[in-house]
Amino acid sequence: MYSEQLIQNLQNGSIRGLIFDFDGTLLDIAEPLKNSIEEVFKEYKVTSDMETTIQEIGALMETIQGYPLPKIVLQSYDMFRYISSLKSLTFMKKIEIAAKIFSRYLTLAKEAPIFPDADKILKKLSKSHDLYIVSHNQTKNVIEHLEKHNLMNVFKGVYGADILPALKPDPSSLKPVFDNYKSSKVKDFVMIGDMPSDIVAGVEAGVWTIAITTGISKKDVLTEQGASLVIDSLSELMKIIEKK
User: What is the pLDDT at residue 1?
Assistant: First the structure.
């Protein structure tokens, strides 16, 4: 899916800011997520269609990693009821298993790598664009990864769930980015993310949106959200920008 107008704007330099999601967009979380699910399911002897389970639990992780523990507990019934691999279990067992997966994932994700060539691409993009991160991860976790890869200085701002006024898909989640400018047009910015919540937030905020398939969401799911552009990698984005 391509928006010719967005491509033109990317190529002629009229896009001012690029707003990135983090987990699944810049950070490769596929292996930590898969391993955390497999380890806990093996412990509890849960069998499942792993592809479906990764989709369901990954979407849940995207939401709850920004929540404080009390909120997770209060909303746990609605959160965990739709995980198909856990449907036959009691509610308390679902929470127990989900909590262990989440805890294991947070540990494994600390060592997750950024996507190949992401560091070079981001450094190159920062020379012509203002770069931001709006993530459901905690700000300190995002910063730790960026510092590890010497990328902190390429971003104008990093906003995690702990400092955002709202979480995606709420469009006000992007407000901290716009607050950096005395005057700006929403069409000067692009939201880039791997989850439906990223695209919905961008669409409702009025910015351009680029869905990237490097995370757990399938391409058709992202396309359905109305993304201006759907790409398979950051390298593809650079090829689009540099193709005059």
Answer: 46
